[in-house]
Structures are given as C-alpha cells and as structure tokens.
Amino acid sequence: MRDDDFSLIDDDANDGERPVFDMGTEHWQEEIDFLEQRLRGEQGDIDKDDKETCTEALAIAKENLANCLKRQK
C-alpha cells in the first residue's frame, strides 16, 4: 500500500468518481465499521500484513470522517 492510498488530496480522480475528500460522512462511517469488523476477524481470517494495512486504513478513515464532520459545520 502506498502512503497516499487514502489521502485526502485529489489524485486525478476519474470524471464521475467522487474525490476522497468529498465521499461524505456515511461513506467513511461504513469504511470504519468494515475495517473494525475486519480487525476483529468478523470478515474472515486476517494475517499480520493485512492487519497492519487495516489498522493504517482505519486511522486514515477516522481522520477523513473527522475532516468531513468539520466541513459540515
């Protein structure tokens, strides 16, 4: 995984795709829920590498959710 895979910076998203920073709170909450389930093993077995990747993705998803909530104020 690249460091910028979940970055809020628009990395030339294709037309019709929403940029990461515009995905909304519902998307990020669903992503957080999925990643937390994955880390608990509710989505099948998880190896060390996948666990590390999910942990990193979870932290970024939480940051993205917080940023979305800030923009709504």
Q: How does this model look, in words?
A:
The protein has 73 residues and is mainly alpha-helical. It has two helices and no strands. It has helices at residues 24-39, 48-72. The protein is elongated. The model is unreliable at 9-13 (pLDDT under 50).
Structural topology:
Layout: H1 24-39, H2 48-72
Helix pairs in contact: 1-2
Question: What characteristics describe this protein?
Answer:
73 residues, mainly alpha, 2 helices, 0% strand, elongated
Produce a short descriptive summary.
The chain is mainly alpha-helical and 73 residues long. 56% of the residues lie in helices and 0% in strands. The protein has two helices and no strands.
Mean pLDDT: 82
Q: Give the total of beta strands.
A: 0
| β-strand amount | under 5%
Q: Which structural class should the secondary elements be placed in?
A: mainly alpha
Termini Cα gap: 32 Å
> Any idea what the shape is?
elongated
How many helical elements? 2
Helical content (DSSP H or I, runs of 4+) = 55-70%
Rg result:
13 Å
Largest sheet: none
Catalogue the unreliable spans.
9-13
Element order, helices and strands? HH
